[in-house]
Amino acid sequence: MCGRFTQKYTWRELVELYRLTQPARNLEPRYNVAPTSTIDAIRVRDGARELVPMRWGLVPSWWTKPLKDVPATFNAHGETVAEKPMFRSASKRTRCIVPASGYYEWRTINGAKQPYYFRASDASVLSIAGLWDEWDDITSGEPLLSCTMIVTEANEFARPRSQSHAGISCRR
Phi/psi of residue 15, each to 5°? Predict the structure, then answer.
């Protein structure tokens, strides 16, 4: 599972990688992005890719409870994303890419959790598959864009030798 990641790329890197045409944004590096934070995500709107701030933790458009009652939806398992009610609708219609510089995975060693940082060997931007949706807050009526990362089983390199461990689905 991807529970923390980094976003420390430049606007120029994103424009070159994703062919963005929107006005430039000042992007601040972030080294410990946690679930429910606002993150950068790439979505297609009117045929063009755009970088949009979204809440990391999907809130489906049909959600009828307060935001505080949304379960942990920052990761969606690729193997079941089309069947799980929380992700099924978004998987059919609203996909996105979450750009990242790297992500953390933890391993318990002698009773203590040790973080390990994974990134591309050339430090290029990782493109993590995701889903997004727009929800109207039931108390304020304000629209909220939110997203989730699609995760899958880790490959042999990232998996601890003694156990199975989920990893993110990304492309360089």
Answer: -60, -45
Active-site residue set:
2, 105
Token couple for 122 = 């050339």
DSSP string for residues in the chain: ---EEEE---HHHHHHHH---SPP--PPPEEEE-TTSEEEEEEEETTEEEEEEEEES---TT--S-GGG----SEEETTTTTTSHHHHHHHHH-EEEEEESEEEEEEEETTEEEEEEE--TT-PPEEEEEEEEEEE-TTT--EEEEEEEEEEE--TTTS-TTS--EEE-EE-
For 106-157, what is each residue's pLDDT tens digit? Answer: 888 889 988 889 999 999 999 999 999 999 999 899 999 999 999 988 777 7
CATH code for the domain of 64: 3.90.1680.10
Q: Report the domain count for the chain.
A: 1
Which residues pair with residue 162 across a beta bridge?
none
| 95, 81 Cβ separation under 8 angstroms | no
pTM: 0.87
CA 36 to chain centre: 10
Which residues form the domain of 91? 4-171
